[in-house]
Amino acid sequence: MGSVVEKSALIICGDYMEDFEVMVPFQVLQAFGVRVDCVSPTKLPGQKCFTAIHVSLGFEHYSELPGHSFTLNSNFNEVEVGCYDALVIPGGRFTELFSVDDRVLSIVKAFAEAGKPIVTTCHSQLILAAAGLLKGKKCTAFASMKPVIELAGGIWWEQPGITSPFDITACLKDGNILSSIGWPAHAEILKTLFESMGARIHTTKANSVLFLCGDYVEDYEFNVPFRALQAVGCKVDAVTPSKKKGETCVTAIHDDEGAQAFSEKRGHNLVITANWGDVSVYDYDCLVVPGGRSPELLVMNGKAVTLVKEFAEKNRVIAGVGQGQWLLAAAGVLKGKRCACGDGMKVMVKIGGGELEESKGCVSDGKLVTAVGWPALPSFISHLSKLLGLSLSFE
């Protein structure tokens, strides 16, 4: 997914930043050829920030659950604003601390003075207010931020018709300020950011992609490619055999915390966007099976296995991440195919007739794409986009 012009972005990170609001831009920008540096003022490259899951669990206020540990890859003290084309500030409670950090504010002001895109989500607009950048600017955020924006001289804007987090789709652009209520709007956030960075989307046709999910699907492995494909113009649906359109699946966070196997924690909710009975293989160009423990659930459902077989019979693109290979093996899709997979899926790939590519995080073989797990998602999205005839260039 090479760029005509090399682009780069900076993400300012901190403990308890919103999990999706750092990882989605981090991985999706990389998938389309953008270098992404992640820094925090009191931490060094290789050190980690704790993330937080912000999701509605039926209470008056959203809940905050423990997320992943996010590894920083660059040094805050060595940041040169002139080396970057965009700034991303995730939401989360860390923004309260950084809003009174002169070093952070200095960097943000420098991006503003240079007219470079600045992405803010949920609560990170507080940093714009502290930097004095909201005067006369139209801005949106989580609703509790309205008085902050107005007291800072900004013009509050709110997306109409929101009755649940799943209705949040808008990214507001005013000059170089890009703002949104939060992570559910990532498709539009990414689309607007790409456009602001001078990107052009190239496609040979309109693509439709179906994600086959279930409860405890891997959080990143669903959401990151789902939002990435939406951002570049694909029609994307999520379906599961046992739930109707508008119902939710709970996701799972799998993270390396030093044990022999990854830990599992509750993640964000995802909304099912299509009814099982309405799904036809003829309406989609691609099927994606994310990992987590949902493939183990789906493999016990004959309808789910049959759907995968139908996509293979119609020569559609099929993609699996992590434990998704469990379902692909059961459907006979891996026979004679080169596959990438983690340790937990090696037996399934072998007995399913696949050929292990142990040194690679992601592999394409014909119309099959497989990846070891969420750390390989940038490569997975890049491979999948290529098979769908999608690319991005920057001018």
From TrEMBL:
InterPro entries: C56_PfpI-like (IPR006286), Class_I_gatase-like (IPR029062), DJ-1/PfpI (IPR002818)
Domain DJ-1/PfpI: 7-195, 208-385
Pfam families with a match to the protein in the record: DJ-1_PfpI
PANTHER family, sorted: DJ-1 PROTEIN (PTHR42733), DJ-1 PROTEIN HOMOLOG E (PTHR42733:SF9)
Protein family membership: Belongs to the peptidase C56 family.
Protein name: DJ-1/PfpI domain-containing protein
Originating species: Gossypium darwinii (Darwin's cotton)
